[in-house]
Amino acid sequence: xxxxTLNAAIIGSTGYGGVELIRLLASHPYVNVTSVVSSxxxxxxxxxxxxxxxxxxxxLLDGVDAKAIRAKADVVFLATxxxxxxxxxxxxxxxxxxxxxxxxxxxxxxxxxxxxWYKKTPADEAYLAQAxxxxxxxxxxxxxxxxxISNPGCFPTATLLGLVPALAAGWIDPATIIIDAKSGVxxxxxxxxxxxxxxxxxxxxxxxxxxxxxxxxxxxxxxxxIAGKPVTTTFTTHLVPMTRGIMSTMYASVIGDRKDEDFVQxxxxxxxxxxxxxxxxxxxxxxxxxxxxSNYCDIGxxxxxxxxxxxxxxxxxxxxxxxxxxxxxNLNLSMGWDETLxxxxxxxxx
Length: 350
Ligand SMILES: NC(=O)C1=CN([C@@H]2O[C@H](COP(=O)(O)OP(=O)(O)OC[C@H]3O[C@@H](n4cnc5c(N)ncnc54)[C@H](OP(=O)(O)O)[C@@H]3O)[C@@H](O)[C@H]2O)C=CC1
Ligand SMILES: CC(=O)N[C@@H](CCC(=O)OP(=O)(O)O)C(=O)O
Fold this sequence. Notes:
Blueprint: E1 6-11, H1 16-25, E2 31-37, H2 46-49, H3 66-72, E3 75-78, H4 84-94, E4 98-101, H5 111-118, H6 125-130, E5 132-133, H7 136-139, E6 148-150, H8 154-168, E7 178-183, H9 198-201, E8 206-208, H10 215-227, E9 234-239, E10 246-253, H11 260-270, E11 277-279, E12 297-304, E13 309-316, H12 320-335
Parallel strand pairs: 1-2, 1-3, 3-4, 4-6, 5-6, 7-9, 11-12
Antiparallel strand pairs: 7-10, 8-9, 10-13, 12-13
Helix pairs in contact: 1-12, 8-10
The chain binds NADPH dihydro-nicotinamide-adenine-dinucleotide phosphate and ligand 2.
NADPH dihydro-nicotinamide-adenine-dinucleotide phosphate (NDP) is lined by residues 11-12, 14-18, 38-41, 64, 79-82, 84, 102-103, 153-154, 186-187, 189-191, 318-319, 322-323.
Domain Semialdehyde dehydrogenase NAD-binding: 7-146
GO cellular component, one term: cytoplasm
Family: Belongs to the NAGSA dehydrogenase family. Type 1 subfamily.
């Protein structure tokens, strides 16, 4: 157990994930953000672009230079677009930094799968093997002391926390799982695009990347690990005209005679002692606003005796539990600290 203070750098600090890391780490008792890094705005004050940080951060953005970052920091968060972490990680590790990658670059163990789904050059296989996938409530015990942590995707976090306990217990048939997921627009990052500008998004509701979403292999990788046999699934994402939040609604055939209350009990036992997963009482389903701005994942169930299927509803804030919050939770676990440090936020409501 180590309680010393850590200095942290954030590459991609001018994006939504990076700025959320700045917000959350400002309340962490053991972590100081000593370097905010930008590939395009080096030398300018970060508060120029983010006036909500005026007088909170008075520093200038640093450039992307592993040795210079190491001179200021012990740990670096990579909140960069796909393809960047794969390139930067070797030199950051070489410089002696602990690396927490929020992008998808180190999540898939197979480089061929990464290339197929992300259409980018994969990380070197040695780094993919070294990276520990930090789905905190499932694999958190593997993260302690690790130097390269791969933070799960936002949709996989909501989805897998909703499916893993039932799958691990053999209560659902993996071949029947269907996942219907919705995200707020901040999930697409800060860069403007046709699909995310106001008049395209407002009063609209659309499905996207059907059967082509890069989170499909990530979800299947974990379901396969938990089931102990290959699992494929249907996963459809939708864009909702709201800023934050993910809801993942999952359907599967139930094995055995199980009622709502059995699922509630099973999940409460699986997540016992883990503050950030809240299992709702029977007949109560979570809404995205009930986790907004927090690191919680809230889950509810309904078993339909007519169809023999269970419906599981799981919600997170994509920028917190789906990105920056879980990354900090993983840093806490990796340091042997209480996993809740710096993350004790009550959801913002209404
Ligand atoms: N938004 C979300 O809800 C989630 C996002 N993620 C993942 O986290 C990562 C960051 O996402 P998000 O913050 O939304 O994205 P943004 O597009 O908002 O930000 C990405 C940042 O990366 C920086 N960047 C771009 N190119 C480079 C480069 N070559 N070298 C270093 N930095 C670069 C940019 O800043 P600058 O030009 O200043 O360098 C930019 O601000 C992505 O991989 C995303 O898929 C994961 C989970 C959830
Ligand atoms: C709304 C929206 O567009 N969301 C993004 C989430 C991207 C993401 O989180 O990217 P990685 O996990 O792959 O790093 C998407 O669906 O692609």
